[in-house]
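Q: What structure does this chain adopt?
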Amino acid sequence: MKNDKLLFAVLLLGSTLLGSVGQLLFKMGVDSGMIYTIALYVMGGVIAYGIATVVYLYILGRSHLIWTYGFVGFSYIFTTIFAYFILGESVGPLRWLGVMVIALGTALIGIS
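A:
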């Protein structure tokens, strides 16, 4: 069971990462202003979201909702990091502090 929990945690991290990639692709698509580029980015985002959802549902069917849903916090962390490093969005110190608090809380949920 402990090995299952570790595998599930890794899969959930991957799922939340893909969800954040989907958000990034959506944003890049709508910012591009070109119909063809918008369609490509949005389709990539939909695919990333689709895979993330399938993985999430797989884990949800095999573990507790409270534990599984706790990993959703990583989505905010990944999305903030992508927005800062890839999109060049401004992230203030208070928001970085919030990201660290979310990371700590999500880690505590993961090991519980």
